[in-house]
UniProtKB/TrEMBL annotation:
Region (Disordered): 1-22, 299-319
Location of the Dyp-type peroxidase C-terminal domain: 231-413
Record PROSITE patterns: DYP_PEROXIDASE (PS51404), TAT (PS51318)
Single annotated GO MF: metal ion binding
Keywords assigned: Heme, Iron, Lyase, Metal-binding, Oxidoreductase, Peroxidase, Signal
Organism superkingdom: Bacteria
Family statement drawn from the similarity comment of this UniProt entry: Belongs to the DyP-type peroxidase family.
Designated name of the protein: Deferrochelatase
Main location: other
Amino acid sequence: MTEQSIPAARTPEAPANAARGEAVGVSRRTLLGTAGATGLVLGAAGGAIGRATAPAQATPLTSVGSDRAMFHGKHQPGITEGLQACGHLVAFDLAAGAGRAEAAALLRRWSATAERLMAGEPAPHDDTAVARDAGPSSLTVTFGFGHDFFSRTGLEKQRPTALDPLPAFSSDRLDKARSDGHLFVQIGANDALVAFHALRAIQKDAGSAARVRWQVNGFNRTPGATAHPMTARNLMGQIDGTGNPKPTDAAFEQQIFVPASGEPAWMAHGSYAVVRRIRMLLDDWEKLSTAAQEQVIGRRKADGAPLTGGGETSPMELDKTDARGEYVIPLTAHARITRPDKNGGAAMLRRPFSYHDGFDADGTPDAGLLFVCWQADPLRGFVPVQRKLDRGDALSRFIRHEASALFAVPGGASKGEYVGQRLLEG
């Protein structure tokens, strides 16, 4: 984990007709009319079973369902959008005998499916109807290529140098079976059935061309679950994402996306995704007092403000000391170590999911963070920060990196194109 993380999923404003109890214009094919008629809202608080009350400003269900991301564009979807409530990360390996032609046909199928599903329409063929009645629900589907994809397809000369394998870190405890992969798909949505529907459609589209290598499920807070929009919390209870770069920052495009003039040419406007399955040792973490947890992170647990005072976005006073002459924000605090200005300006856009995969035999929760970060070059983004964390982050005692992957994610597809076409047909 790092200090940089995407802000919490936005809380969309309710359309005017939703306030009148009318259905919002969404499809698959139409959103359940009863959602508006019965007044169900997200963020509703307790009461007897079958009865709920909510603050007046809670987000109507119809608004969450109608929110839509666009498939075609300069960049692929699923990178700059706000956090989604649920998601799936999945890597595929090409099947024996499958090469460039099969990969191109697969990406063509996947792109057609993603475009339809993101518009709230059924899959092009063999739709399962799992998401019937739901709107797009902010669905995004994002595709990328792993290091070994290029050798399998005879495209070694087109493999970016930025896709060279990540260096080993001393804190790694990596399971190779749950790492890497030829092809990467990230799915996110604000409705769990919509997200699963997309996952199932993508897996079915793979057919005989590719097989699942690994797959993990994640979640975040649902839009409307809090009284007002706020930065997300992780499973340690910490506000996580205060320092993320923002699209309004002057250097954002340069830090996160490959320039139009970059190499290789097919990666123009694309990005590189580092994916890490980071297990949180919650039993150990929860034994700490709140004050001790705050010393590890360097921020207040209640509101994310730096220990030196102010609010969540207040600057850290790194040189401030207490009455004993000790730094208020310890030298090993996670928030201090991950600051871009302490890492040569290294910046990455984090867009993670939390996960929970049950309990070990001794009752230890298998839970943590599905870390996904985006950058124009991982050697200038993820790697220098992780090296520094590896050397002295106080949080390292409470987490374990169990899987890792790096993928080249090309720019968005233009209308009539499929994702990766400039690589596979160039």
